[in-house]
Amino acid sequence: MKSGEHFLLSIPVVGWVLARTDERSPRRLAALAAYGLGLGVLIDLDHFVLARLRVGDWHHLTDCLRDPKRVFVDQENLFEGTGEMASLRILSHVLIGGALIALARRVSRPVERLTESVLFVHVLADLLRDNEIV
User: Are 18 and 29 in contact (CB under 8 A)?
Assistant: First the structure.
């Protein structure tokens, strides 16, 4: 699934979680919203590590750093030559997500709820797309 789609899916999830929190500070709510929206997209940075493990170098990352617009306009070809990574991506998300949820639990209940909800929807969306359901 593309980053923009993950961002759009994260919006209602973040809104739903924040609507159910006891937090009322506008600054904290804004920080929580930014965290949730960022997490919904940035969890995919693990793809660069997986690509590194698959091909043995960081050229997928360095190519994007040299030409950042590729991240937005050429997502289908970012990891060309890495082979099939769908199951590795999901596994990586589950491992990283589990660790993030455990850490978030130590921070606060709203951060924990955001983390688990956003990551659940992210992984579910990836599974639905990978299996051509949506």
Answer: yes
